[in-house]
Amino acid sequence: MNSVDSKPATSSLIGSEADSQRTLYPYVTGTSVVGIKYKDGILLAADMGGSYGSTLRYKSVERLKPVGKHSLIGGSGEISDFQEIMRYLDDLILSDNMWDDGNSLGPKEVHNYLTRIMYNRRNKFNPLWNSLVLGGVKNGQKYLGTVNMIGVHYEDNHVATGFGNHLARPLLRDEWHENLTFEEGVILLEKCMRVLLYRDRSAVNKLQIAKITEEGVTISPPYALKTFWNFSAFENPTLGAEGSW
Amino acid sequence: MDAKAGDLDAPHSMGTTIIGVTYNGGVVLGADSRTSTGMYVANRASDKITQLTDNVYLCRSGSAADSQIVSDYVRYFLHQHTIQLGQPATVKIAANLVRLLSYNNKNMLQTGLIIGGWDKYEGGKIFGIPLGGTILELPFAIGGSGSSYLYGFFDQVWKEGMTREEAEQLVVKAVSLAIARDGASGGVVRTVTINSEGVTRKFYPGDTLPLWHEELEPQNSLLDILSAPSPDPMVS
C-alpha cells in the first residue's frame, strides 16, 4: 500500500522535504460540512465557498467528492490540503481496484485511513489543515464519521465541522431520528445550512447536497437558499431603545 | 540611506494586479508593471506575464524572487516534458506543475499565480493558484494586492463568451482601475492574448489609459495652462 511518506520518484523540488515543512496557517478555506444518516444512506451538505481570510474569494469550490463506490467525503479547512487528500484517496482506491479481487474499500476503512494520515501528520507538527466528514453505505450498513486536523475522529448519526458543530448539531440533536426519508433529510440539512448562512461570516449562498446509498453517489447541482428578512423587529430594531442595535 | 527612506532593503515584492480571463476562443492575461522594494518602486516597467511554453503563460504576483524561481523551474520541467511528449504541453499540466511547487513549498513561498494558455484538447483555460497551492480552474481569475479593488467590478461586468476585443478591453480597464487605487500597482498595462493562432503581446502606456475619479488630464506644464485661452486658471 502506498504510504504518505514515501518519496516520489521525482525531483526533490516537486516532492516535499519532510523536515522543513510545517503548515502554520491556512490560506484558502472552506467552512462547515454537515452530514446525517437517513433511511437509505447518508446525506452530506456543504457550501461552495473558498474564503481567503475575510474575503469570500472563490464561490464555486466543490467540497463534496465521491470516494470509490461506497463513500462520500466532505472537506472543510485549507482547500490545497483537501485537494492533496483527494489525491491520496484516489491512489488508495486505484490500488484497491488493482487487486481485482472483488473486494472494495468501504467507508469505515476509508475513514480509518484518513484518521491515520491526519494523526500522523499532527504528530510531526505538519497537519493537513482540514476537518473531514466521511460517509457511505456498504452491504446495507450505513456509516458516517468525521476526522479533523489533530486526529480526533468519531462516528455518529449526524456530524458537522467548524461552525456547524455549534449551529447545526443542536438542530440535528432535536430533529434527527432514525429512518428519515430523503425529503425530510434534505429539509433538515437545508434548515442547518440556512442558519449557517445567517450566522457564519464565511458562508456563501451556493451549496450542494450529496447523497450516497447502496446504489451509488449523487451530488446535486449548485443551488441557493431563500433567506427571510421580513420581520417587523428587523425593520425597526431600535424602536424601544434609540441608539441601540 | 537609512531605513526610514523607503526601506530599500525590503525584499522585492510585486504588489501587483494580475488578471486572467477566458473568452470565446482563448484567454487574455493582464498585469500592471510595478515592482516595489518597500515604498520605493524598484522597477516601473516590469513584465509580470512570463512565458512557460509557446502556448502557456504565467502571471506572477507576491514575492518577485519566489515567483521568478517557480516560473523558471516550471519552464525547465515543461521543456523536458514537451520533448518527451512530442507535442505541446497542455495548460492543465503546466498548471499542475506550478501547483506542485507551490503546495510542496508552501511554508517558504509567498507568491500567487495565474496560469493561462491554449491547447488543442481543451481550448483556452485559466487556472488560479493562490497562496497555499490550491489549484482552481476558473472562467476568470484576479490576483495580487490590486485585485481587492476589482471583486465588485468583475461581479458586475463579467460575462461568459466574450469576443477577443471585449476581453482585452475588460482586462485593460480592470488593471487600470486597480492601478488607480492600489499603491502597489502602477506603470503600464501589459496584456498577452493566447488562442489557436498563437500569442499576441500588447502594451498600454500609462498615458493611454482612461482617467478615473479625481484624476486629471496630464499636461506638459502649468505654463501651457496659463497661456491657453481659458478663464481664471490662477484662482486662489
UniProtKB/TrEMBL annotation, chain A:
Pfam families: Proteasome. It is found in: Cytoplasm; Nucleus. Keywords: Cytoplasm, Nucleus, Proteasome. Its main location: cytoplasm. InterPro entries: Ntn_hydrolases_N, Proteasome_alpha, Proteasome_beta4, Proteasome_bsu_CS, Proteasome_sua/b, Proteasome_suB-type. GO terms for cellular component: cytoplasm; nucleus; proteasome core complex, beta-subunit complex. Belongs to the peptidase T1B family. Non-catalytic component of the proteasome. This is Proteasome subunit beta.
UniProtKB/TrEMBL annotation, chain B:
It catalyses: Cleavage of peptide bonds with very broad specificity. The active site is at T16 (nucleophile). GO terms for biological process: proteolysis. Keywords: Cytoplasm, Hydrolase, Nucleus, Protease, Proteasome, Threonine protease, Zymogen. Gene3D superfamilies: Glutamine Phosphoribosylpyrophosphate, subunit 1, domain 1. One of its GO terms (molecular function) is threonine-type endopeptidase activity. Component of the proteasome, a multicatalytic proteinase complex which is characterized by its ability to cleave peptides with Arg, Phe, Tyr, Leu, and Glu adjacent to the leaving group at neutral or slightly basic pH. The proteasome has an ATP-dependent proteolytic activity. The proteasome is a multicatalytic proteinase complex which is characterized by its ability to cleave peptides with Arg, Phe, Tyr, Leu, and Glu adjacent to the leaving group at neutral or slightly basic pH. The proteasome has an ATP-dependent proteolytic activity. Belongs to the peptidase T1B family. Component of the proteasome complex. This is Proteasome subunit beta. It comes from Forsythia ovata. The lineage of its organism: Eukaryota, Viridiplantae, Streptophyta, Embryophyta, Tracheophyta.
